[in-house]
Amino acid sequence: MQEGFRNQRLTVVPRRVVAEASSRPVTRRLMVTDTGYYPNAADHLMKRLGGIEETILILCTAGTGWANIGGTQHRVGANTALVIPHGVPHAYGASADNPWTIWWCHLRGADLTELIEEIGAGASRPVIPIGRLDRAIALLDEIVTILERDHSPASLMGAAGSAWKLLTQIVVDRTMPVPGDPLQRAMAYLAERLDRTVRVADLAALVGVSPSHLSALFRRATGGGVLAHHTALRMAQARNLLDTTDATVAKIAREVGYPDPFYFSRHFKRMHEASPTEYRNRAKG
């Protein structure tokens, strides 16, 4: 490995400290053991034929690199993350003509397997796109800054919290729509039409996909279908109006697309286990 990249940052938690933290609450579930920042890392090269105990996450912010994971070659470009599971043989490095700039960390802990599965990465798919690069950089910068200060139990816990946020944010950013794509346009359309019903077929035609594909996009992003998402938006607006105005239930029902206030009340109670009036009178905060 080429050492001493200009303006690099690097910190490695001593293995004695790692061993102690592995038995403590929180850090036994997730812990950062090594982390750093390598800008314009020309000639960067790492080979580990037997893998390592930790899972490696490398965020490429500029330039390009490559990775050989379990014998398969992969290109790593800007706005992507390379995830190498623990124990997997690997090699990676910067490209010769356009060296990468990377933020990276090594992770271990009881919760890590589930988190990596949710990201959708693995030995057969180690390179994943990053939806919000700025957020990911900020969180890795936070991890590096914390562990540059010291390796106390409090700092290890703080770095673990930032790492948890980083991993879950990658999951969220990958499932939520990007501006201009069919899912984002469909969600925006629904959010602007809380006072009426919308047919799935009409919405799908509007955003240029089939009804079945649109439904699949919504299920992946929200856990439910198109109409379930629209109903959730309408009910959220109903709750907001109940909390912040003295409008009658009938008027609120019309505002969120229910001409029949009795049907609205039944639907509201089915979702919230309280009628609109009971909800309004409930102590909150």
TrEMBL record:
Please list the residue ranges annotated as the HTH araC/xylS-type domain: 184-282
Would the keyword Transferase turn up in this protein's UniProt record? no
Protein keywords? Activator, DNA-binding, Transcription, Transcription regulation
Alphabetized InterPro entries for the sequence: AraC-bd, AraC_XylS_family_regulators, Homeodomain-like_sf, HTH-like, HTH_AraC, HTH_AraC-typ_CS, Tscrpt_reg_AraC-type_HTH
Highest taxon listed in the record's lineage: Bacteria
Q: Which GO terms describe its molecular function?
A: DNA-binding transcription factor activity; sequence-specific DNA binding
Q: Record's PANTHER family?
A: ARAC FAMILY TRANSCRIPTIONAL REGULATOR (PTHR46796:SF7), HTH-TYPE TRANSCRIPTIONAL ACTIVATOR RHAS-RELATED (PTHR46796)
Q: What is this protein called?
A: AraC family transcriptional regulator
Which species expresses this protein natively? Planotetraspora phitsanulokensis
